[in-house]
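hey can u check if this looks right to u? its 340 residues, i copy pasted from the old doc so theres a chance i mangled smth
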Amino acid sequence: MILKKKLSIVDLAKQLNISPTTVSFVLNGRAKEKRISDDLVERVLKHVEEVGYKPNALAQSLRTGKTKIIGLMVEDISDPFFSSVARLIEEKAYKSGYKILYCSTDNNTEKTKDLLDVFRDRQVDGYIISPPEGIEDEVSSLVNGGIPVVLFDRYFAEITTDHVVINNEESSYNAVVGLINSGCKEIAFITLDSLQSQMQDRLKGYERALNEHSLNHHVKEISFFQDSENIIKHITNFLTRKDNLDAILFATNYLGVSGLKAIKALDLKIPEDLAIISFDDYSLFELHSPSITAIAQPIEEIAEKVITILLNKLNLPAKYKKNQAIVLSTNLILRNSSVK
């Protein structure tokens, strides 16, 4: 079998009887900048389509200094929240000519460092990261090296970089106040054993609401590095010891799902025995009987802000030098689980 020679920009230029430089300017979106006529641009693009020309990605990156690839690092790409945000980011990035490389960090510091090395080797143009603890030096190194980095869901207070988060403290505060107003007095907060900014702020909101009403604190922290079965066991044991509770706020949707399984196993009724609210809305919460009240994050707005900031930094670096710290509001979706 004779392999067909791959066309180059020089080949296209010869076929069109114009210079290779002109073809390159058209293909790299610089036609207006170089004052190339619309008629010639149309002729080049039509010919490229007819002959099925595909630019060499490596050669293009060497020529432009860009790979047109963005590295997206999330805690768990299978999680409904992260997968939804990632899908929307990918969609807008693709429309802007960028491809996304995904990975899950599993909240593991060493794994994240290894993955950052892989992304550096691939020379990605920018990073979108929901960072675990312990990678502050790596993020600082990227930022100091002039690489655009946008953090989301959580951030490092000591590092100045773009980030997009929600108002975690106010969200949990408002949820707990709602439970108190419905008559709940012994409210638990089941969360992760984590120093990450979003978890600490959710805890602060819970504590502030209870302190203002002089109510007892009931906090259960669970390690992130537990499988679902062990999470259920931890919650079951906690509820068995704390048999006076009348409400629970779960800090994440997967803790909420495990909590519902533990509550069912203990034959407790929602909301008669326990009123329930969970962070991060999830289709299962709406379908559950009774339906579960949830703090819904503005997923579309988060994705839009994150990718817009990064694309601006990549394409208009001089104009968007200043870092942005964006805090978005959540929506408390009231359902049957929180009404006594």
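The chain has a mean pLDDT of 91.
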